[in-house]
Design goal:
single chain, seven-stranded parallel β-sheet, alpha/beta, Rossmann fold, six-stranded parallel β-sheet, 16 helices
Length: 414
């Protein structure tokens, strides 16, 4: 266990947040953790963040008024940080260090609530914080490839799937922070509820939640409207194997209309995708946009498209799906994982991931349909935005709902 570095402290704290990375630059869970802090503060909650010292330079430069405690690097963490194989051990080491830092803050703020916002894995054990009100989550995991795509699974995915029940049984025998928490927010649907029950968590403390939020400014912009034929579709996100980007490329050979696809993002699959486009002679129908320098202008750029195509095969959440829906873009996705919890028949098209050829054929048919049916696209656009607001996809809504949990747990208004 490591000791916490000196902190900038506040004598009055309502909520202590814990996350290993809080950053605009690191993406993923790191930017989500930052948005949680900023939205809580915007809503008037007195909040203190505990995070790792690796993000100190960025936070001190960009958010100098942030109330934060940094846990230090250790030789163990430096060694573990070199490889993804040791990610869970690295996270556990951070949680042990952060729990010790939280105990110090609780001595000054005994009524404060502690919210572990990440890591989000249902398998990772959490240490217990005694004599404190604790919320963990949103937890989202236990996501594996569909049966029809198991031949695509790498060895690491297979091993993780096979070992999952045993890992959760061991979870019961080790650190019991999740089991002892006052509330565990669960955003992965039944797959995550089932995983947490294996670990010994009680149903009455498992609360369904949205995984992440969308910046409110996206909703403040005019909804994207759909008129006439539109052959332009896009895929957005880190280009990794499980996103199924190659399925979209292959589906272009099956479309009856001359659909054009823009792929926005970088990642290890970029080279393979470029080679596939060359092999299929689709260079005039697929454009690679590796980087949008000013991310704030991305939403304006997306106004040219008919829909967002996202056939991910192992997507635990789907923040990019939420962003598309808030802006008024229909979504074409696999009926699997996070997107299946967000998209409805009124807001997009979900494809049963029965197998590769089935998905390719239905991607082609779905893009053909939406490209030539502006009334359907417009109806999905309206319903997508309505669902995003009603179900609390905006950060302001997500945090308001979490504050209700805080108040229920502490029996006081937060």
């Amino acid at each position: 266990m490591t000791a916490a570095a000196p902190a900038s402290t506040s004598n009055q704290v309502d909520v202590i947040l814990i996350a290993p990375n809080v950053s605009e630059q690191m993406g993923g869970e790191a930017i989500k953790a930052l948005q949680i802090y900023l939205e809580l503060k915007r809503q008037g909650v007195r909040v203190h963040q505990i995070t790792h010292v690796r993000v100190r330079k960025e936070l001190e430069k960009s958010f100098p008024d942030m109330q934060v405690t940094y846990t230090p690097d250790t030789k163990l963490q430096e060694m573990l940080h070199r490889g993804k194989l040791f990610e869970q051990l690295l996270n556990l080491d951070f949680l042990l260090s952060a729990t010790k830092a939280a105990e110090q803050l609780l001595r000054q703020n005994p009524d404060a609530l502690v919210h572990f916002t990440s890591p989000v894995s249902p398998v990772l054990p959490y240490p217990s914080l005694h004599n404190a009100k604790v919320v963990i989550g949103p937890v989202n995991g236990n996501i594996h490839y569909p049966v029809g795509f198991r031949e695509r699974e790498r060895a690491a995915y297979k091993i993780r799937r096979w070992l999952h029940p045993a890992m959760q049984f061991l979870h019961r025998m080790t650190f019991r922070g999740k089991q002892n928490a006052d509330a565990v927010l669960v955003s992965g649907g039944e797959r995550s509820f089932a995983s947490l029950r294996m670990a010994g968590c009680r149903d009455e403390r498992l609360l369904p939640s949205i995984d992440s939020g969308v910046l409110d400014r996206l909703y403040d912009q005019p909804r994207i409207e759909h008129h006439g034929e539109n052959l332009r579709f896009f895929h957005n996100g880190r280009l990794v194997e499980h996103k199924g980007t190659d399925l979209i490329v292959r589906s272009l050979l099956k479309t009856k209309r001359r659909i054009v696809l823009d792929i926005i993002g970088r990642g290890p699959e970029l080279g393979n995708l470029r080679a596939l486009v060359d092999e299929l002679k689709l260079k005039d129908r697929v454009n690679f946009i590796e980087w949008v320098p000013d991310h704030s202008k991305l939403s304006e750029m997306l106004r040219q498209y008919r829909a967002f195509v996202f056939p991910s095969l192992a997507e635990a959440n789907g923040i990019v799906v939420q962003e598309a829906m808030v802006q008024g873009l229909p979504v074409i996705a696999c009926d699997w994982g996070g997107p299946s919890l967000l998209v409805t028949p009124e807001t997009g098209i979900l494809i049963d991931p029965k197998g590769e050829q089935y998905v390719i054929d239905h991607l082609a048919a779905s893009m053909d349909q939406l490209a030539g049916d502006p009334e359907l696209a417009e109806s999905m656009s309206v319903h997508a935005r309505e669902r995003a607001l009603r179900d609390g996809y905006l950060w302001s809504g997500v945090i308001k709902n979490w504050r209700k949990v805080y108040s229920k747990v502490t029996l006081r208004s937060i």
